[in-house]
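ok so heres the complex, two chains, lmk if somethin looks off
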Amino acid sequence: MSETKIEMKIDPRAIEICVRCGTCRSVCPAFEVLGWESQNTRGRIMIAKALREGLAPDSDVLDSLNTCTTCGICAAKCPAGANPPVIVQEARRNLVSRGFMTEAQAGFRTKVNASGNTFGEKADRLGWLSDPSGLKDKSDYVYFVGCLDSYRYPEVALKTFDLLKRFGVTLLPDEVCCGSPLIRTGSEAGRFVDKNLDQIKRIGAKTVITGCAGCYSTLKKDYPPDFEVLSVPEFLAEHLSELDLKRLDMSVTYHDPCHLGRHNGIYDPPRTVIKSICRLVEMKANRENARCCGGGGGVRAGYPDLSLKIAKRRLLDVPSGVDAIVSCCPLCIRNLRDAGSEIEVIDLVDLVERAMKSV
Amino acid sequence: MDLIDQLREIVGERGSAAPSERLCYSSDASQVKGLPDCVVRPMSTEEVSMVVALAAELGVPVTARGAGTGLAGGAVAVRGGIVLDMSGMNRILEMDLANLQVIVEPGVVQLKLNEALKPHGFFFPPDPGSSAVCTIGGLIANNGSGMRCVKYGTTRNYVLDLEVVLADGRVIRTGSRMLKSAAGYDLTRLMIGSEGTLGIITRAGLRVVPLPKARRLVMASFDDAETAGRAVAKTFASGIVPSACEILDRTTVQVLRRCDPNLVLPEGDVILFEVDGTERSTEESAQEIARVCSPIAAEVVSASGEKEMEEIWEARRLVGAAISRLDPTKSRIYVGEDVGVPIKKIPALIREIGEISERFDLPAMKYGHIGDGNLHVALFIDVLDDDEWARLASAADAIHRAAIRLGGTVSSEHGIGAARAEYMAEQLGEGTLSVMRAIKRALDPKGILNPGKLGLDESPSSGGER
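and the predicted structre for the whole thing:
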C-alpha cells in the first residue's frame, strides 16, 4: 500500500453494489482471453475500491483498468445492477489526472491533443470532400464525420454525406475529434467538446447525425444536451421511404457496436434498414448479448494483441452462408477486418449505396 | 530464490505476485478475506503436482480456487500462501456417452459442460444458481447442487472417479469408469465436499443422465409459508417426485416482480413445482400437483410454455443479488444464507427466521429448495453502515444456531469454508470432528492444503470475517 491515496470522485455505493458473485466472468471479453481475475470486471471493481484505500497504482493496476473495452456486457448481465464501465472510466480519469497512465495512454493523448484526431494526421480533415465550397453555413442538421471515417474510410464519409445532404445536412467547417478516445482513456477532452459545440451552435443545428458509435455515445452523453443526436442508421430508418432502395439478393449479418447497442439501446433501426434491402441472419450473440469487437475503450491502441484476439472470437459468432458482416461503427469494422474476417465487413451505408445503385 | 521465482520455474508467466493480482484473489463472493502471497494458474496435472510438492517442501499453504463464486471463503487463502486458480484447466477431455460418463478437467464451467452435452441428449444435473460461471472442480469440492437436486441428488451422486494431487505432490485416482464398485474405501466420496483440504482435484469422471423430454412448471401461492410447507408435504405424500420444488416468500416474489414486471408469478408465498419426464407423465403430474394444492392454495397456475418457464427459472437463479436493483442503498450480503433442516421443520425454520429478521431489524428474503429442506436467507444491509454490519453478523449467527437446533445443517450446498467453520463442532459433535481431523492429519500431515477451513484446525478457526 502506498502513501498516495487516489481521490476517487465516485459514489462508493457504485462500487459496493458489486457482491463479487463473479457472473461477469462468463461474459467479459478481455477476461476470456487473459484469464486473470485482475482482468475481469470483478477484479477491476476490487482494484478501483482498493485504490481509494491506498493500493499503489503500478503497471499491473493500469493494465487491469485499461484492458477493459467498456463494452458494458458485464453491466447488462450483472444481477446486482452494477455499472462497471462507469467505474473503470472514472478510475482511469482519476489516475490520469494524477499522472498515472500507461505509455500508450500518454502517447495517445499527446497525439490527439496535438493533431485534433486519433491518428495524428496533419492532412485536411475534409480531404475526402471534393468541393467543400458549397457547404451550407446554416442548417438544422449536421453530419459529424468522426476521425475514422474522415481519415481511414473517406469513401464511407463520402457515401454517408451523399445520402444525407439531400435532406439538407451540412458539415462542421473545422470538425475535430469528438473527444471519445480521450474520455474513454481517462483524459480531459473539454477543448475538443467546446470547439465542436461552438460550430454546431453557429450553424444552428438542432440535430447532429453521426456514423460512428463512439462519436454517437460521446455526443449524446459527454456534450451538453443542447441538440439531438441521431445515429446514421436511425436517420436512414426514418427516411427509408425516401431512399428508393431496391432489394438485393444476398444475406448479411449485423454486428451490434457496444456503444450503439448496449450503451444507447439502438438495436432496431439498423436491422430495419438491412431488412428493407436483403436477408438478415443474426449473429450467435446479438443485441443486448452481442460480444465486443475488442476495439473500444482504448484497447485497440493500448493492447493490440488482446484487441485482435477479442475480434477473432467475435468472428466465431458469424453465421455460415452470409455474404457480408454489416456494422455501424468504423472502429468495429476496422477491428473485425484486421482480425482476418474471410467475409467482407461493410458499413451500413455501403449496403445502402449498393441497394440504391442496383436496378 | 523467492517463492514466486520458484513457481515461475514451473508455470512461467502464469504465476503472479503482483499486489493487485493478489488483491483480486483475496476473496470470493463471501465476506471472508485472505491475501495470498502468489497466484498460479496451472494448465496440467503435472504443474499442479510440482507446485504442491514445492509448497510441501517449503511448508507453504496451497488453496485451490475455481471461479471464486463460493459463499463461504472456501477458496480464500486465509493463511496466505499460494492460490491455485484451476479455471484454466477447462477442457472436456472425453465424452464417453456409451458408458454414460464424461471426463473433464476441473475448470470446466457447469453451463459449458451442459451446452456440450445437450446435442447428445444428456445433462449433468447439479445446477447451482452460478451455473454460468462456477466450475466442476468447485462443485465437487463443495458438493454443490441446486434446484433440481430434490430429484437428481447433489454432485456427490455424479462423480465416479477423480484424479487428485495429494499434499506431497503424488497423483492418485480415487475410482474408475465403473458405474458401481465395491472395492475398498470410497475415496471419491471422501474428496467430494472436502473443500481442497485433502487434495487438489485435477480431473473428474462424471456420470451424466439423459435429458428429460418434457418439463412443466406449476406455481401455487399460499397465504403463509407454513401452509406452503404443508402443500409440499402433501405433494410428496401423493407419490410425486418433482424435479424442482422451490419456495419464494412474498418478499422474494415482490422483488422478482419489480425487477421484471412481465414475469408471470402469483402473489403471496409461492411454491414452484417443476416436473420432468415425458409429455404425458408431466401433464399427469402437473394435474395431480394442482389437485393436491388447490384446497389450501390461494392460487394455482401453470407456466404456459418453455419460454415462460425459462424466464421464471432465470429470474429465480439470479434473485440473490437482485435486491440492489430495487434499492441501491441495500446490498445482499451472503451470510447465514444456506441453512437446511429436515423438510418437516421448514415452516418452523421460516418462522424463526422471521423472528430473527425482526429482532435485528434487518429485512430478509427467504427462498430456496423447500423440497430438500434447504432455505436461502437473503439479508440486506447498507454496506456503509457499521451498525448494520454488526447486526448482520448477529442475525447470521442466530440463523445458523436455529438450523442446528432444528436438527439441520449450517450449509446445505455452499460449503463451510472459513465462514461457517466455527459451527462444525456444534453441528457434528466433537467425536465426528475428531475423525475428520484424523483423516486430515493422515493425508496432509503438514497442514498445507487449504488451512483454516472446515473447522479442522485444532485451535478455533480464525475465520477472517469482515
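quick notes: Chain B has a mean pLDDT of 93. thats all i got rn
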